[in-house]
TrEMBL record:
Secretion signal, residue range per the UniProt entry: none
Protein name, entry field: ABC transporter domain-containing protein
All residue ranges annotated as the ABC transporter domain in the record: 17-289
GO molecular function: ATP binding; ATP hydrolysis activity; transmembrane transporter activity
InterPro entries, sorted: AAA+_ATPase, ABC_transporter-like_ATP-bd, ABC_transporter-like_CS, ABC_transpr_LolD-like, MacB-like_ATP-bd, P-loop_NTPase
Protein's organism: Streptomyces dioscori
Lineage, highest ranks first: Bacteria, Bacillati, Actinomycetota, Actinomycetes, Kitasatosporales
Length: 301
């Protein structure tokens, strides 16, 4: 077997998600809104990408269509090699469950379950034979790197460890999110930042192809928000995960490897290695342009 490539060599070479020619029109006739106006964008695996743009520029619509939560009016959306438009509702639901993680502004934890139970909930609901999940994941990732997740097969599901290599993964996640001493608490006993860290751990628990985060720090104070953003960054850089995050906040976007900018339903710019100041400057430039005539590429319904 070939030696696994160095992590940097794999960066940006696999595609976690992409849309091509993406158009989304809400409504019809005179009241139609063209929320996406022909977007081509690729979200590389193993990267943290932020989606930014003025209010109403189509960020959430892009995320929802890329994640299979909503359908495009025309164009295509892919998770890996799977074109979402070819899936019936059932297969789309399974794809979302098995291959995508979500983090929303509201933490959406189940109040009656412990932290550990919340983290493993999607896998438990799926009744995912951990064997099945593990095999699929291994097949997918084995191409690019050795996962080193083999191991014991004991199954103590609700202590946050789980069984076998999935358990080792959950175990590592619990440490990354810093929740080891909170595993048996209920969400109401946690701060907002801690609750969002549980939601982040839950999103990554099934080792999805990509985690989509929609304003994940919107309900948090800046310090807790910073912790959650650091966490997303660590998951990408230390655990080879993929994150696509919608945000209004240049400071949040600066945690990403790359920022894609939308304006009037179009992709207007990309920025590698962003800083908050550069992102802010770029947004100001849009504001100047979008007051009035946008940048000449404005969406028309
Ligand atoms: N369900 C809907 N029905 C009709 N129009 C919609 C719907 N959802 C979004 N829109 C419109 O589509 C456009 C893009 O909305 P979207 O929420 O994607 O933008 P956004 O960049 O995420 O905005 P914000 O930053 O304010 O959340 C807006 O003009 C919005 O009013």
């Amino acid at each position: 077997m070939n030696a696994p490539p160095a992590p940097t060599a794999t960066k940006g070479t696999r595609t976690a998600a992409r849309v091509a020619g993406a158009v989304k029109v809400y409504g019809a006739g005179g009241t139609a809104v063209r929320a996406l106006d022909g977007i081509d964008v690729t979200f590389p695996a193993g990267r943290f990408t932020a989606i930014m743009g003025p209010s109403g520029s189509g960020k959430s619509t892009l995320m929802h269509c890329a994640a299979g939560l909503d359908t495009l009016t025309s164009g295509t959306a892919f998770i890996g090699d799977t074109e979402l438009g070819t899936l019936d509702d059932r297969r789309l639901t399974l794809l979302r469950r098995d291959r995508i993680g979500f983090v929303f502004q509201a933490f959406n934890l189940v109040p009656t379950l412990t932290v550990a139970e919340n983290i493993t909930l999607p896998m438990d609901l799926a009744g995912r034979g951990r064997e099945r999940g593990r095999g699929r994941d291994r097949d997918r990732e084995g191409r690019s790197r050795r996962d080193g997740r083999g191991g014991g097969r004991h199954d103590d599901r609700h202590d946050g460890r789980g069984g076998g290599s999935s358990g080792e993964w959950i175990d590592a996640l619990v440490d990354v999110v810093g929740l080891r001493d909170r595993l048996h608490h209920r969400p109401a006993e946690l701060s907002g930042g801690q609750q969002q860290r549980v939601a982040v751990a839950r999103a990554f628990a099934g080792r999805p192809d990509v985690v989509f985060a929609d304003e994940p720090t919107g309900n948090l104070d800046s310090r807790s928000g910073e912790e959650v953003l650091n966490l997303l960054g660590r998951a990408v850089r230390q655990m080879d995960r993929t994150v696509v995050m919608v945000t209004h906040d240049p400071v949040a976007a600066a945690h990403a490897d790359e920022v894609v900018f939308l304006a009037d339903g179009r992709l207007v710019d990309r920025m590698e290695s962003p800083t908050a100041d550069r992102v802010l400057d770029r947004l100001k430039a849009f504001d100047g342009k979008s007051d009035g005539k946008s940048d000449g590429k404005g969406a028309s319904a």
